[in-house]
TrEMBL record:
Phylogenetic lineage: Bacteria, Pseudomonadati, Pseudomonadota, Alphaproteobacteria, Rhodospirillales
Keywords, ordered alphabetically: Cell membrane, Membrane, Transmembrane, Transmembrane helix
Span of the signal peptide: none
Protein name as catalogued: Multidrug DMT transporter permease
Organism of this sequence: Terasakiella brassicae
CC per GO annotation: plasma membrane
Pfam families per UniProt: EamA (PF00892)
InterPro entries: AA-Vitamin_Transporters (IPR050638), EamA_dom (IPR000620), EmrE-like (IPR037185)
Membrane-spanning ranges: 40-60, 72-93, 99-119, 131-150, 156-178, 190-208, 220-243, 252-271, 277-294
Length: 302
């Protein structure tokens, strides 16, 4: 079992900030290449390519991957949840708008916190830390809630898909942390998820009507897919699973609230998308929330 820590340190905070910035930029990369490669097809290529890269990495390091360590079914479960989340996000966006999707998807840290409360006793949050999570979530509402009007029937369908996607996202983290995957190497945990996703995403693309025949390998499309495959799915994901092994899952999950803001900033700088003053207020609320979740608490002796 790797040495675990009860609080985030400087290294983890730097890594989390880089991860959130990278994931935010990924949203722009997907938009930039959507006209040349459909989104679910992009995800299929990303998962398949990253599976090959991680597999080669494991072979080069000569690390055992097929020993009987009790991780098989847990890994398949995590892979199914991981794939299910992305499928629901892509399909949900067909019915609801992006702002509503962000609000519902970022309910995920609460799923991690509640799951930890029941299944990971050593990582329970205090009342103040739940207030911190709530502050961050309200920040998301302030930033992206301008389109949060009374929904149509189609929007309700999309909203429901995004809520279930948030549950799947949070559950993936809890499943990894509560079972034998917590003791497995980061590369093995990631390989489970990528390989299952590589099988499921092409099926999802076919169901959605996206075809591989419509791919156009323009320089922008190739750069976007390379970024998603090499940097996002291979490097950042393996760092994320390493962090999950070492640090408390709810505290890590609280940093995910930064991702949509990095996405908005990247969209403003690269795609000339609008950035409103409400974003500044929202980012302050998210920052306060992350601080409350991760501040050290001194126990009171009575």
């Amino acid at each position: 079992m790797p040495h675990t820590k009860s609080h985030l340190d400087g290294l983890s905070i730097i890594l989390l900030t880089v991860l959130c910035a990278s994931w935010g930029l990924q949203q722009v990369a997907i938009k930039l290449s959507a006209a040349d490669i459909a989104p679910i097809v992009q995800s299929s290529i990303r998962s398949g390519g990253a599976t090959i890269l991680i597999g080669l990495w494991v072979l080069l390091r000569r690390k055992p991957m097929f020993e009987k360590d009790g991780t098989l079914w847990w890994g398949i479960a995590a892979g199914l949840l991981f794939s299910f989340e992305f499928v629901l996000v892509y399909f949900g966006l067909e019915y609801t708008n992006a702002s509503r999707a962000i609000i519902f998807l970022y309910m995920s840290p609460f799923v991690v916190a509640l799951g930890s409360q029941f299944f990971i006793p050593t990582e329970k949050l205090t009342r103040l830390q739940y207030i911190g999570l709530t502050s961050s979530f309200i920040g998301i509402l302030v930033a992206f809630g301008e389109s949060f009007t009374f929904p149509s029937q189609d929007m309700l369908i999309g909203d429901f898909m995004l809520i279930v996607a948030a549950i799947a996202w949070g559950a993936t983290t809890v499943v990894i942390k509560m079972g034998p995957l917590a003791k497995a190497s980061s590369s093995k945990t990631l390989l489970y998820q990528l390989s299952v996703s590589a099988l499921i995403m092409p099926i999802a693309a076919w169901i959605s009507g996206e075809t591989w025949a419509d791919i156009h390998f323009t320089p922008v499309a190739v750069a976007s897919v390379a970024y998603q495959t090499i940097w996002i799915a291979t490097f950042t994901f393996i760092v994320w699973f390493w962090l999950i092994r070492i640090y408390p899952a709810p505290k890590l999950a609280s940093f995910s609230f930064l991702t949509p803001f990095f996405g908005v900033l990247a969209g403003g700088l690269i795609l000339d998308e609008p950035m409103t003053p409400a974003l500044l207020i929202a980012m302050v609320m998210v920052g306060v929330g992350i601080y409350l979740v991760n501040r050290k608490h001194t126990p009171v002796v009575v």
